Amino acid sequence: MPVPLLAASAPSIPSLSGLAAVRLLPAGISEISVFSPWAVRGIGVVALIAVLATAVLLWARIRPGRRRFPRALLLGTVLAVVLAQILVVSAIGARANARLGFVRTIGDVVAQIRGERAFADRGPAVISVPEEPTSVPAGPPATSPADAAEFTPIKGGSDYTGFSKATVTGRRSGVTQEVWVWTPRDYSPTDGATYPVFVMLHGDPGSPDGVVTAVKAASAMQAAIDSGRMQPAILVLPSLNADRRQTAMPDCADVVGRAQVGTWVQDDVPAIVRASFPNVSPNRSGWAIGGISSGGFCSTWTAIMRSDVYGYEIGMSGYDVPFTGAMSSSDELKRSNALSTLLRTRAHQSLRIWQMAAQDDSGTAELRANLPAAVPSTDTLEMVTPQSGGHSATLWRQTFPTALTWWGSQLKTPVAPDAPLSVPSAEPPSSAQQIHSPSGGDTATGAGDGSDTGARGTLQEMFTGIQGIGTIILAWIVALALSLAAIVPWRGGGIPGLRRRLRGLSGLLPGRARSAGAASADEPSRTGAAETREPHGAQESWDPLGAPEGSAEDPTPVASPDPGRSRTLRALLRGARPVGARLIVLALACVAGTLAIALVGNRIVNFFPTWSIAIQDLVLALP
After folding, report:
1. Of 65, 232, 316, 556, which is most buried by a Cβ count within 10 Å?
2. Each residue's pLDDT tens digit, 543-569
3. Per the record, which residues fall in region Disordered (predicted)?
4. Alpha-carbon distance 587 to 597, whole Å?
C-alpha cells in the first residue's frame, strides 16, 4: 500500500489544474496541434509569406511622394519586421519540435511557458510512494488478460521500423497514454524465445517518438543484437504526459490530486507489456528501466522504489536531487528523494546501475559526486563520465550503444529474481563498495578539450564559446543591426551619404521632423534629390525616411509612371532589384535573431557546451 509523504508546498497562489490553466485559451485553440506535418508546414508557409510581404512593404515605404504620417509608416514597418522574425523563430522551433517531440499542442506550449507557477497548489504537496519492502517478494506483480492492448505497427515506408504503438488506459492508475514498443527483426510472439525488456522514459518536455529520434533507438538496438553485444530484446517507451501539469512539471511518484504517473510506470506499463507480448521475461532478472534527462532521474528513482519489477537501470544525463514536480516543492522532499539518499536509506533488492553524466553538464555534478559513494554492497554502479558533450541529444545518441552493450553483458549473468534486500544506512557507506570503475571518458565528437586556460582562454571563450556572454551580445548586435538595415532607407555617397542618413534619422525626433524636411528642401545640391510636384501642382515635402531607394549615380526618382508596356516592365524590373536586396537583408536579420534567442535559451538551460555539439543536434532536428 502506498505510503503518503507530506511536505510544505511552494508559495501559495491560486490553484490551477491542467485544464484550468488551458482555459486561458479557448478550448479549440488549446488543442490545435503544433506537432503534425501539416502544422509544421503551415507555420513555415506563413513565415515565408510574412518575410516576402515585409520585404515588399519595406521597399514600398521608401518610394517617393510619401507625405502622410511618416512616423506611423515607420512604426508599421518595425512591427512588420518584428512579426516576420517571430514567425521565422516559430517555424524553426516547430520543425525542431516535430523531430524531437517536445510538445504536441498549443495548450502544451502554454503549459511549458507558464511552468510550475501556473500549476502550484495551495497547501502541502502529498506524494504516495510504495511501502518499503521488509522481505523478498514471492513472485512478480500479477498480470491480467485485461491489461492486453492492441498494438498497431508504425509504418516507415519500405523500411522495417519495428515499432508499434497503442493508446492504453492503465487499470490501476487511470492514466490514458501512448505506449510505443520496438521488437527486433523476425520477432514473433510464438517463436519460443524469451525476450528481456528495456523500458525507457523521455525527458521534460518530451515524448516517446522524440526519444526514438534523439538516440536513434531502432538502429542502435538492432545493431547491438546483430553484433552479438546484446541478446534480442524489446524496447518499451511509455508517454509520461498524462495531462498538461505533467507536461509542464512531471512527477515520478503518485501525487494526491494529480495523475498517478508512478503507478503507470511501476505497475501498468509492465502489466500491459506482459499481457500483450507473452514471451517477455517473467521477472526482474530480464527487466531494465532507463531514461534521458529528467527521465534518467525518474528511472533511477523508480528502480529503487520498485526493485521487485526492475533489476537494471540505465540513466543518461540525469540528476541526483529532484528539481521539478511535487518532489521539488520543499527542501524536505528534495532531501528524502535524492537518489544518493534513497540508495543507502531505502531497502531494495540488488540493482545493477549504469549512469552517464558529462563533466561539462552542470546539472549532473551532484549525481557524479554523490551517487558512487551511496551505492550499497548489494548493488553495482558503472559511472560513465565523458569529458564533454553537455546535455544534448548528440551525446545521448553517441552513448546509447555503450549502454546497450553494458546491459547485454549484465544479461549473461542476470540478477536473481529473489535477491536479498539491501541494509539501510543513515551514514554514507565506506569506499569499499562494489562500484565499477568510471569509464567512457572520451570527448564527444567535435568537442573541445578545454586545454586553453588562463585569462586569454577565458576571454576567447567569452567571445567565441556558444555560452559566452560576449558571443550572445555580438549575436544581438548583429541581429539588431541587420533589422535596422532592413528598415532604414539606403543612400549612396560614402561619408556624405552617411551624414545624410544620420540627418534623416534625426528628423524623427520630436520637433525636428519639419525642420529636417525644410532643410533638405533648401539643399538640393547636397541631397541630390530633384523637386517633384503632385498632380495638382502642390510642391511635395521631402521625407527623410521616405527618400527614394537607389544608388548615388542615379538618385533621382521617376517623376511619373510611364503608360507604355516596355517602360512599365523596366520599372518593375528596377523595383524587383531593391525588393530582392531588402529580402536578403531581412532574411539575414531573421536568422540572426533566431540565433540570438537560441543562444540565450542555451545559456539558461545549459544544454550545448560547444558549437560542434549544437550543430550536430541541429542536423538531427532540422533535416
Report:
1. 316
2. 333 344 444 444 445 445 555 666 666
3. 417-456, 512-565
4. 16
